[in-house]
What we know:
The complex is a heterodimer of chains A (about 325) and B (about 290).
Chain A: H1 2-29, H2 34-39, H3 45-55, H4 61-74, E1 79-80, E2 85-86, H5 87-122, H6 127-141, H7 144-158, H8 170-205, H9 208-215, H10 220-242, H11 244-257, H12 263-272, H13 276-304, H14 306-311
Antiparallel strand pairs in A: 1-2
Helix pairs in contact in A: 1-13, 5-6, 5-8, 5-11, 6-8, 7-8, 7-11, 8-10, 8-11, 9-10, 10-13, 11-12, 12-13
Chain B: H1 10-13, H2 30-47, H3 49-52, H4 84-104, H5 106-120, H6 122-137, H7 140-151, H8 155-181, H9 185-192, H10 197-233, H11 245-252, H12 261-291
Amino acid sequence: MLPYLLRRLAQSLVVLFGLAVVTFLIIHLVPGDPVQQMLGARATPHTVATVRLQLGLDRPLLAQFGSFVGDTVTGRFGDSITQSAPVGQLIGQRIAPSALLIAYGMLIALVIGVPLAIVAALRPNGFADNLIRVATTFSFAMPTFWLGLMLALLLGLELHVFPVSGYSGGIGGVLRTLTLPALTLGLSLSAIVVRTLRSSLLEVLQTEYIDAARARGLSERRVIGKHAMRNAVMGTITVLSVNLGFLIGGTVVIESVFQIPGLGSLLVQSVEHRDYQLVQTLALLAGATVVLVSLATDFLQAAIDPRIRLASA
Amino acid sequence: MSATVPATTPAARRRIGLRGLFAGRTRPPLPVLIGIGIVGVIALASLLAPLIAPYPPDKLDFLNQLQAPSFSHLMGTDDAGRDVFSRTLYGMRVDLGIVLLVTYVPMPLGVLIGAVAGYFGGIVDTVVSRVADTMIAFPFIVLVIAIIAIVGPGLTGVLIGVPIAAWALYARLARSEMLVMREQQFMLATTALGYTKRRAILRHAVPNLMRSSLIYSTVDLVVNLLLLAGLSYLGLGQQPPGAELGTIIAGGQAYLLSAWWIATLPGLVLVAFGVGVGLIGDGLSDGRMRGGAS
Lengths: 313, 294
């Protein structure tokens, strides 16, 4: 098991390094003077020079990269030029709505997706399976921002069940303000959950140990619920981890639809304000989260599933 | 560029070409035909937009603001009295043109890069794989937004940003298939016959690798369409007043309750197109599985 985990760890470190290089390059690839772009045409040469010094853009490239990586690891990101606040603080204020939205969206995707996947896998190509396939085809083709607007129109503006914009903390506030956004996110993810879980369940149902369980006369409920699902759970964990990038991308759009002050809307704002420093940090954070979660998932799976552990030994 | 299967038996030989993608059936299955129909109608309508559209897409008409759908305005009018149906036709034109470019330019490049990595292995493979891993690790839209931050908001940002991010998935797909294909008889034969590596990769491996990438590209096409509309909705893609489905929908958001049609109907066109492409893609991958080829 150890060689496998070490290999995965090394791979992830290389990718993390790659992410740092790519995001570091952002500010240096801006055509013209990035500081002038950030401050606008009216900034005096003196201000531009001061900010350039403050950002360390006058130092050698390698030294700049060193402090970029150092700042990221220690969580001190410096000050945002356009928002006049420390980048770390800006992110800290906005991380909770985004994280809650992703967690809530995952929950909804599972609640919708897992039962549908089981129903579909029980009778492949049956009526229910075909109906579910049509539904997932539709939900896969829906733009998240449009789906969000439609849900806001139906459940918010027409039926007045939920507010259509804003965010407030606390359990009650989250349930009230994040349910519509999370439903939007969850519905788009559920199509992927259904499709992946259905095919992994179908694969499990064809194995000999399922035949053996049936031959022993176990009830169908027990065969599916205990023997098949247990193996398909692994698939579900992987689906969620692999699609974390999709979920993070979804929050970027959905937070703008529902005006939630999260990291996604911060990213859009920072592009509008040409705050390259903030864009760099947010992009690196998003990529690093995906890499670290996928690494953690692999470790978890190796711990749970003896097949992975033994196969790679 | 024909995606063919190595013909070994007479039955397999008949499956060559586009028809071969449907596993030797003489006619594609019904869902695929429906998909082709939907995609065909929408593509044709947007291609012929200047002929079909009843109004110029930017024609302001302040006497007819926020009109509900009717025979004179099939999808109603927006807050400036512009005909939403005409704007949707012209918008779809922009969307489809850009999406085809940003999907089918990086695809062959990605396949080629993946094929080279898989064929040579070693350090080439390691470098390509880690670079591709890095690109894939970013949430797609975040990477594209980061590139748009460099280039500046607008369609140019999308045209540059999406291909930079999109080749990596094809490279990964082609690489893993190449690792298997490298050991197959027909690839070993290219070495035995003394073909150059360049000929072996370009003429013998890549055409075979294209097949699964072509199938995957149907998913990619929908993803990119939704991405483009999403970026324009966020104000980072097509800039208003230019017609594009994301900007039309964004413009309708403020009138969701009083004029639901502005945001709703163009969105339905996007969904219909995505469903059409999805039906075609499902048919292609089903055919592949049943055919058992490649």
